[in-house]
C-alpha cells in the first residue's frame, strides 16, 4: 500500500498531459510545480455531476481571488485523457483560469496515494476528490474529501487557507 502524501512532502515525479493548440503535450510534475505556488484539485472524473456542477466552476469563479492571494496557477487533474480534459475545460469556460492536467493512467493519483475504486460505477481506478496547495513542489496544504463529500476540496475552503 502506498503511503498517502502529507503536508510538507515533496510531490513525486510524474507526468501529466495537457491539451494544447498543437494536441496533447506531456508536462512533468517537477517542471510544472517548480518555483511557484499552484492550487491543484483532483476530481474523480470530467463531466461527472459534482465535478461539473460545483467543483470546477468554483475554481473558475474564484480564480481571481486565489491569484490575489499568491496562487500562480490553478490546475484541475482527473484520471481522464487529455482530449476529455481539454473538452471539459472548454465547455466549462476554464480557459485562462484553470489548467486541465490529464492523469490518463492515474500515475499522479497512485504516486500521491489518493486513488479510489469506482468500478461499481463503471469508472475503474480513479483519483479521489482532493485539493492541495503546492509551493515549489512541496505540499503546503492538503484537503482530502470523505467518499461522496464535497466540502474540504472547494475553492472557498482553499481561499481560507491562503
Automatic annotation (TrEMBL):
Top-rank taxon: Bacteria
Q: Which InterPro entries match?
A: PRX5-like (IPR037944), Redoxin (IPR013740), Thioredoxin-like_sf (IPR036249), Thioredoxin_domain (IPR013766)
Domain named Thioredoxin: which ranges? 5-162
Which GO BP annotation is one of this protein's? Answer: cell redox homeostasis
Question: PROSITE patterns annotated for this entry?
Answer: THIOREDOXIN_2
What is its EC class? oxidoreductase
**GO CC terms for this protein?**
cytoplasm
Q: Which GO terms describe its molecular function?
A: thioredoxin peroxidase activity
Q: Which residues form the active site?
A: 51
Catalyzed chemical reaction(s): a hydroperoxide + 2 glutathione = an alcohol + glutathione disulfide + H2O
Q: Which UniProt keywords apply?
A: Antioxidant, Oxidoreductase, Peroxidase, Redox-active center
EC no. given is: 1.11.1.27
Described by its record, this protein's role is as follows: Thiol-specific peroxidase that catalyzes the reduction of hydrogen peroxide and organic hydroperoxides to water and alcohols, respectively. Plays a role in cell protection against oxidative stress by detoxifying peroxides.
Family membership: Belongs to the peroxiredoxin family. Prx5 subfamily.
Record-given protein name:
Glutathione-dependent peroxiredoxin
Amino acid at each position: 500500500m502506498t503511503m498517502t502524501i502529507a503536508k510538507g512532502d515533496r510531490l513525486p515525479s510524474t507526468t501529466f498531459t495537457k491539451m494544447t493548440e498543437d494536441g496533447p503535450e506531456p508536462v512533468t510534475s517537477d517542471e510544472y510545480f517548480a518555483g511557484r505556488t499552484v492550487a491543484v484539485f483532483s476530481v474523480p472524473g470530467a463531466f461527472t455531476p459534482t465535478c461539473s456542477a460545483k467543483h470546477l466552476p468554483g475554481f473558475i469563479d474564484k480564480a481571481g481571488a486565489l491569484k490575489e492571494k499568491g496562487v500562480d496557477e490553478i490546475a484541475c487533474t482527473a484520471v481522464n485523457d487529455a482530449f476529455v480534459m481539454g473538452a471539459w475545460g472548454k465547455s466549462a469556460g476554464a480557459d485562462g483560469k484553470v489548467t486541465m492536467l490529464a492523469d490518463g493512467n492515474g500515475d499522479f493519483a497512485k504516486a500521491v496515494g489518493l486513488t479510489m475504486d469506482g468500478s461499481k460505477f463503471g469508472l475503474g481506478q480513479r483519483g479521489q476528490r482532493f485539493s492541495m496547495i503546492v509551493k515549489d513542489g512541496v505540499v503546503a496544504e492538503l484537503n482530502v474529501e470523505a467518499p461522496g463529500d464535497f466540502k474540504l476540496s472547494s475553492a472557498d475552503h482553499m481561499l481560507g487557507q491562503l
